[in-house]
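Lecture notes, unit on protein representations.

Consider one protein chain, 425 amino acids long.
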Amino acid sequence: MSDTHRAIEAVWRIESARLIAGLARIVRDVGLAEELAQDALVAALEQWPESGVPDKPGAWLMGTAKHRAIDLFRRNKRLARKCEELAHALETQQEMDVLDVDAIDDHIGDDLLRLVFTACHPVLSTEARVALTLRLLGGLTIEEIARAFLVSEPTVAQRIVRAKRTLAAARVPFEVPSGAELDARLSSVLEVIYLIFNEGYAATAGDDWVRPALCEDALRLGRILAELVPQEPEVHGLVALMEIQASRLRARVGPSGEPILLLDQDRARWDQLLIRRGLVALERAEELGGVLGPHALQAAIAACHARARTPEETDWERIAALYDALAQLAPSPVVELNRAVALAMAFGPAAGLELVDALTSEPSLKAYHLLPSVRGDLLAKLGRFGEARAEFERAASLTRNGRERTLLLERAATCSREAAPPQPG
């Protein structure tokens, strides 16, 4: 791949969400906005290798996409009146609103935030809202979204296509909701933002264990949302959770990009500024009163790790209690799996294994690689190395992340060595 093509990939990664969001505000159609953005990308791939990457690549992409929009509306006779109005607006706008990226970042009515709320409109199913937002803002592939939700790729693709059609047919306004409507849509938005963060924190596929840029996108959206609704404790809980987890990103990978698990990390590499910001956000959520929501509870769990100077100082009994509360508030098989880990650390691997074994027949976890990974870890701690090796090998076959697969196969090999009978002297 040429240097120019690598540069185009980097520019697209940075600018695509802003580009789609800005276009959606102009054309009032999320599906059309994505098509226009893709047209601009194709133009860049054709022209930049010869002309070079422009000084303001984001503005170039936006300008190209807007010209494509003008051409499209002019060609469509059925939209003649709309063509005249939009073409005039686009030509006289001078693109000032898209050239100043910093102004977009600082403004509370950010186009990206509007895009989140549009994609999370109640006219769509919950699954469609999450899939569409991950696709448009997170830049995730269909495969990555499917892995996140433990469903097939055709199912996700169908959800996204139908979601775009539904938004267009319903003429959903491209705006941040207010009043009661805002309250009704917050939980879905929080879920989407955290899923974007999670894909950056532990990539489901590819050769990278972490994708920090996705975490940064989610953090920025979360912080904007916290400013928009400062009296909503669960928003601050989500921000706290992401800040604290993001503090570990540098420690999660080794010199060659290999994964480093939580208890093996060099805690001196944890970002103390992000930890402090996370603890302040958690304190804010607690000060607002009421029962802590799911994200705030997870932030409290993350805070237990952040406050421990060494793995041995971790308050695992409190973590187990917090997972008990989370399981009652937002029950799910994945929460139960995490609760099993906490129980094992607090009360011994046998206690955790009992709960994990009860999850092995759960249909939604059939292809979830962390189930055999956790089971293998607990079996190894109990000295059942042969069984542990088989579990790690199964987990390696299920994961789509190359770095994680290598780690799991290494753990399987370690179990093989431990299970091997001693050689005669």
